[in-house]
Amino acid sequence: MLWISACILLLAWVNPAAGGLDSFNLPGIVINNFVLPGGVVFLLYGLMHEQTWLRRLLETRLFMLLGKSSYAFYLTHMGIFSVFLHTYVTQNIALNFLLLNGLSILLYRFVEDPLHKLISARPNPQPSLPVAAAVALRSKDKAPAQAEAL
């Protein structure tokens, strides 16, 4: 975690926010694409192989739920929901974050998970007629060639 924190501070130092997101420079690119992932690799290795307080925290039901709803959060955090919350509810970033996480959990529970179960429960579809015909024609073409080879 110290490695990752140091990389974030170093990125802030070599790539100040005044230049905006388009102001990436070579040191920032190297840190972001090569140095930072090294720290992430060590963090993930430690989480997989050692019983730490961080691993126990990430294995709780709350964090498992947040992980499952993370795709819904990804879809909503920069969309119409975020704009609505910022404009009509609150401009507090922390409160917006909590509300968007709550929304993503609701979307996961009542949309994503039921649809996943519905789609997973469907039997395997049979190939359409053009696909079945193409497979049948291909097998007919191979049969005479195999007979000639004998």
From TrEMBL:
Q: Which domain of life is it from?
A: Bacteria
Q: Supply the alphabetized keyword list.
A: Membrane, Transmembrane, Transmembrane helix
Q: Which residues cross the membrane?
A: 29-48, 69-87
| Descriptive protein name | Acyltransferase 3 domain-containing protein
> What is the native source organism of this protein?
Hymenobacter nitidus
